[in-house]
Amino acid sequence: MLNTDKIRADFNILTQKDGKTPIYFDSACMSLKPNKVVEAMNDYYFNYPACAGRSSHKLGDKVTKKVKETRQLIAKFINANNENEIIFTRNTTEGINLLANSLGLRKGDIVLISNKEHNSNLIPWLLLRDKIGIAVKIIPANKDDSFNLNNFSELINGVKLVSIVHTSNLDGVTNPAKEIIEIAHKNNALVFLDAAQGIPHKKIDVQDLNVDFLAFSGHKMFGPTGTGVFYGKYKLLEKLEPFIVGGDTVEFSTYEDYKFLPIPEKFEAGLQDYAGIIGLGEAVKYLSQFDFNDIAEHELKLNAYITTELQKIPQIKIIGPEDAKDRTGIINFYIDGADMHKFAIMLDEMANISIRSGQHCVHSWFNSKKIFNSARVSLFLYNTMEEAETFITNLNKIIKIL
Amino acid sequence: MPCILALIIFGILGIFSASHRALAKEAFSCVFRRITFRPCNTGFQEKIKGKILSKLIARSTFLAKMVNKHYEILSWIFFILMIGSAIWVIRGGYNFYVYGSCNGLNASGFCAFDPSGENNKVTPLGDGSSCGITQKTEKTVTLNNIDLSSFPTQDIKSKDTVVFIGCYACDYSRKAYPDIQKLIKNKEANYVFAHYPAKGDTTFLADIGYCVYKDYQDKYWDFNNYLFTADKNFVLNKLNANKILESFNFDVKKINECANSAKTKKAVENQVKELNKTNIYGTPTIFINDKAFVGPKPYRVYRSAINKFIFF
Q1: CATH tag, B123-295
Q2: Which pTM was predicted?
């Protein structure tokens, strides 16, 4: 069981004494940062702000060592086969674009995606469709928008890549990744998992899943903004062409020729965000101290309370399954005809409650359902039942004036 | 509609505050989309509405509910009120520029640009009290059917004519005097001067002035200039009259005989009677091409009258 008081003490923003501590319910967009993460980044900038991998002085060595440590930590965190399968990116979006532009897709190749993909896992494929003529197919979902394995099985034949979200930022539903991967592999399709939303809340074991590629962002898992990870099975990574090339990606070059460095360097062009990578390592260490079952239990308790209270308000419709246990830490709701931005602004003004409103970068889903927008509460291990109660109290006040 | 309202309000506030400037930009984006027949997708309207409602809800749920329900109508009402008040402010600004008062020509109501009413203060006629303390009811002051032929005149055959009715003893006349001199010089206007003994015993100066103009027309304007610009206490003291005349090399005896003659007294009396026909209620009163300006206006007001900036 989580000790939220102790956890909250690790976050500067949650220990404000001026009564302005936010009730932060927007962790699906961006998690708060533990002090240790910020301190680790400051330590880099204050004490050894050098380059990794290319300078032979002591400061450079220290950065190289720290970056390597982070790579090892992440490899261990997702149980990668070896640390070289970990490629640092700026975020999940960059990871997906790396894959889309490196996989060597050709005209007629089929990419299969779900009906509630983030724009980051939709637009790169649509762009390739327009540029080189790949086919992008959408897997029809169940009535409650959960993943339909039968529909998937019917469409999988001849598919080159299944690119699918692990846990949806729209409704918090986690797709049956293991089954999807099994079916895909039986049909010779590769599988990419967008784990941006899943990795902070669920244990992801890439070997157990047998996933081919996976990407996630640092900023949703206590890490700094502008950090992300792209994972790929080593043998598959060897076949990928680099997406961005230049400094630090080649072993040597002449005016006529060049030779790429081995993986992962050949995918990490240019000077990296060392402070961010070091901060990400600290974030992984921080997250690793918790049992994911405890995190899930904590989020479910709060989600169940909020869900129950929202279900008492007839105008409110929750996106996704009714049962909180199917939606991890996300409660996304809307009211027909209402602009949910207003709710978010009012909650912020009234009680310092930060929730996200809009279409959450899943415009395609909203447009297909003809829903204008929604308000999303996303929970994490630092949220408390008191905060959930304050949210419900204030939401009820707003409902009264509608 | 709330977008337009917000654009105007935040646009004005944005002149002074960077945070409001950002809101003004958002409002502009929203307005631009609306006038190009696209929906406002910036969430700006809801943002403003949300901020307003969250303040209201803390005080009264009922009030918040009403505002939420009638937000568009309320926005229209405020928009119309704002446009109305904006027009009023612009009108006030125009009036202040061309008349020296927000409320129009010689109007004495409160004017934010001239809060102490300096531009409308006059020396009231008839009560002999000190300068500029009281204001009388405005009347229609006019030069129609007024015979100005007996008053000192500089006729340079200009199309513009300035008639200055002032009192040597009145601070407000003395304040306006230099501007009027500047005006007639710069704008090459015909000029008529009339002394109206509004305050204290200044009739003796009217008598002397009448005689000086009669006998020394070429030096009269320097003499008159002296009476308005020299130390007031010295000028208004009867005992100093001869010294002043001497300083201009006038024939003091001749001027005194003229000033004390019954003929002169009658002529000056007739002049005052003629001035009273203008419905004058205080000094200075300045006619510029028949338009009356009561009180010491800023120079730009007189200049505007000659330049025909006055449209209403």
Answers
A1: 3.40.30.10
A2: 0.75
